[in-house]
Specification:
binds iron/sulfur cluster, globular, 185 residues, seven-stranded mixed β-sheet, 4 helices, TIM Barrel, alpha/beta, 9 strands
Length: 185
Amino acid sequence: MQLRVGQIVADTEAEGPGRRFAVWTQGCTLRCEGCCNPHLFTDRGGALLEVDALLARIPPQVEGLSVLGGEPFEQPEAVAALCEGAHRRGLSVMVFSGFTLAELHARGAPLGHVDLLVDGRYVAAQPDTSRRWVGSTNQQVHFLTERGRADAPRFSAPNTVEIRLTREGLSVNGWPQASGVVKRW
Ligand code: SF4
């Protein structure tokens, strides 16, 4: 099973509760105005990676997997396999989707291994500065499991941005996100 990936940050504290392995999927047809990741729109960019190989790269110190986009559920089978693999390793799973939860249900999206879901298009005219990891006020946080509900208090902390200087160059992630991030395979 392969997933088209635009970016990976192996250990981040800016993409969900605690230290997390973050994967940005490549490809999004929703194309919200003001999206900070337009380089992830095309489904011909990034790299096709084996889900098992991705899972093998998760460092032992992280507590969760975060899947961002791009639009993760435009690759539903591979994202489901990634989320299931993370749960098998005892990690929590957080997914950011431009589809609403109702749309995901209508599409039959695989949510069985998702603890936390942030849903909905990004609406640049409605920025949300009060909730952590949420881009605009229309977006909702869904605590889909007990594990997700346990994370709820951590959503009221201030947002963070991480800047790394790596061998490949400058890497920026967090909220508000910045584009131009380094691709690390
Ligand atoms: S759904 Fe996400 S990645 Fe896609 S255009 Fe909207 S903000 Fe950008």
